[in-house]
Amino acid sequence: MNADTFFNHHGIDANPFAAEEARLDPIFDRLPGGATDHPDFGKIMGRVDQPATAVVFGEKGSGKTAIRLMLGRKINEHNKQSDSQPVLVVAYDDLNPVLDKLLSAKRQKADAMLKEFRLEDHQDAILARAITKLVTGMLGEKDHTAEPVPKIDMSRRAVKKLPRQTRVDLAVLAALYDEPASGTALPRFEKIRRKLRIGWYLPQWWVLTKAIVYSAATAVLYVMQRMMEDDPAWLLPALIFAAVCSVVAWGYFFYKQIKLWRIARRAIHEMPAVKRGSDVLRKMLEQLRSSQLGSQPIPRPLRSGATLGDTRYQLTRRFVSAISEMGFAGMVVFVDRLDEPTLVHGDPDKMKAVAWPMFDNKFLKQEQVGLKLLLPLELRYELGRESATFFQEARLDKQNLIDELTWSGATLYDLCNKRLSACHTGEGEVATLRSIFAEDVSREMLLDALDQMHQPRDAFKFLYAAIQEHCRLVADDEKNFKIARLTLDTVRRDQAKRVQELYRGRGPA
Predict the structure, then answer these.
(1) Residue 306 reports pLDDT greater than 50
(2) If residue 331 lies in a helix (H) or strand (E), which one and from where to where?
(3) Average pLDDT of the chain?
(4) Cβ(432)–Cβ(417) under 8 Å?
């Protein structure tokens, strides 16, 4: 029997159990809101309008990415409500670009680079993604990520309502962190500067113009002095005055350029997780006044080589304050797929090197910032080996900690039934797990079988294998569309053995 024939008989238009990755699962998009069926979802979600941190550990296939997608869906629904403050969603779930930038900037071997991974690198990468998304929304451009930016009013009236300091903060943040997916950052900065109604700072070019004029005047006066036989009394003082003014103007111009170049160079050196050239950053910063830049916490190293630890927190506070002025309730950051980057390859030690800097209470408890850390279960085992000092610094007891994302047979049973319902063609009765199995297969048998699978991915593999085995054993002309108990028992035994070998590290996922 063909599987499509089996599904058509039960009024199902697609295989509900074929997908193994939530991001690529077309059935997941059909599920109604809240269809993750996990009892801890509410704790992970918290209040949308008051973003809070949650730390979740889960085995591969336990539904971390599905929960992350459902969180994004809930926030998008909240953002569409006209009477609520929107929340800015930042997807920090692909670390490959960040690790590649660090590897290129530090020119080290991968293992050495990972050992030196800093919290500041995470903060820079998160700010870059958040500010790029915000600037894209402010310019009215399209965003390629799954979490769209809520519509941002950048009309003249709305911009004028923003305090000038807030507009300057946004311009500096855009200069430091905006990373457009296509094109270059400088034209985008000039657009956003005009949107924020921050005029071009002319004195730099005015000083250059005066330096050229004074130099030309000096040259003209010098030539006049050489050509005239009787010099007028005013000529020599005028020549000296023009020469002095020329030297002062050129000196001031080069002093400001060198100062901006040093600021840009130090910032770029201290921000290896952000792709930006020092020359581009200098051209952006020179469009702002020195008084405006002087109050900005631009990253730079100390003479001792240590980092200004509070700089990123100050930048984050300024960013959150700015989006609050624009009507946002805060920012939610999704940290997921930590085991997938090419340089990590699921190695627990490498995952630990990347994740551990984030376990800092000050970082996890930032005002109006909710970090949703969806981490591999291997890190939970590593966490148990840490000292009391580590736990005191991380204060995981205050971070909505989920020790392990576990599923019971009943929750998996409900989830599978909802997937069957989502694939219903609309004709006849909606198929359920009980309706696709033979009469002698009880609900308790199915619950017990699903309980042995432990998590959604393995439950879907089990049901997919059961359907495929039934179709393999039954001829098309038999018209038998109920999966036999013997088939259920055989597939359950094989799949339960596979899951046990996976947990013992003896088999592939």
Answers:
(1) no
(2) strand 330-335
(3) 87
(4) yes
Task: Report how far apart, in Å, the C-alpha atoms of 247 and of each of 76, 368, 507 are.
Answer: 59, 51, 76
Expressed in angstroms, the distance from the first to the final Cα of the chain is 28
Q: How much is the CA Rg of the chain, to the nearest whole Å?
A: 31
User: Cα 290 to chain center, whole Å?
Assistant: 32
Contacts of 157-166 with CB under 8 Å at 24 or more apart are 159/195, 159/196, 159/197, 160/197, 162/196, 162/322, 162/325, 162/326, 163/325, 166/321, 166/322, 166/325
Query: Which pair of structure tokens corresponds to residue 230?
Result: 């009787």
Single pTM value for the model: 0.86
In b/e form, how buried is each residue of 263-272, taking b as 16+ CB within 10 angstroms? bbeebbebbb
DSSP state letter for 307 = B
- Residue 115 and residue 18: Cα distance in Å, rounded? 39
- Tally of CB atoms within 10 A around 289: 14
**C-alpha 211: how far from chain center:** 47
Average pLDDT score over residue span 102-113 = 86
Tokens representing residue 264 in the block: 């840009």
At 145, is the pLDDT very low, low, confident or very high (cuts 50, 70, 90)?
Answer: low
CA 41, 42, 43 angle in degrees (round to 5)?
Answer: 90
Q: Do the beta carbons of residue 441 and residue 94 sit within 8 Å? A: no
Tokens 């089990």 belong to residue: 462
- The whole-number average pLDDT for the span 336-341 is 90
Percent of the chain with pLDDT over 70: 93
In contact, 412 and 451? CB cutoff 8 Å: yes
Say how far apart CA 462 and CA 27 lie, in whole Å: 17
Torsion angles phi and psi, residue 38, rounded to 5: -90, 130
Amino acid letter, residue 42: G
pLDDT of 195 above 70: yes
DSSP designation for 62: S
Among candidates 494, 485, 416, which has minimal Cα distance to 457? 416
